[in-house]
Amino acid sequence: TECDLEKGLEMRKWVLSGILATEEAYLSHLEALLLPLKPLKAAATTSQPVLTVAQIETIFFKVPELYEIHKEFYDGLLPRVQQWSHHQRVGDLFQKLASQLGVYRAFLDNYELAVETAEKCCQANSQFAEISE
């Protein structure tokens, strides 16, 4: 019936709105992680580095890529949810997201080492400990 179609349409929009909100929060966390990246990289080439290039690459491994993947997903999903209709489709966005699972695998494979490295760097360098808070 027409009422069931409308309910289904509203339910899909509600679910996708929740996904959008989650993506927004995730992007904000990734942005917070990326904030110190440029200054740390710049300092790494000076005589007073906070972290070495290798430490930076280990700690922030795949974070910029994850940010780009999710930013693209969010930027694609937002206008579709805002202009919601029976004809609106979002499967292509989820397929593209799923095609990036290798980036997540690499991130997860490195995660334990990244955390260990960050902890060691915090203990050895009060400046990095302050930044990482």
UniProtKB/TrEMBL annotation:
<protein>
    <recommendedName>
        <fullName>DH domain-containing protein</fullName>
    </recommendedName>
</protein>
<dbReference type="InterPro" id="IPR037769">
    <property type="entry name" value="Abr/Bcr"/>
</dbReference>
<feature type="domain" description="DH">
    <location>
        <begin position="11"/>
        <end position="133"/>
    </location>
</feature>
<dbReference type="InterPro" id="IPR035899">
    <property type="entry name" value="DBL_dom_sf"/>
</dbReference>
<dbReference type="InterPro" id="IPR000219">
    <property type="entry name" value="DH_dom"/>
</dbReference>
<dbReference type="Pfam" id="PF00621">
    <property type="entry name" value="RhoGEF"/>
</dbReference>
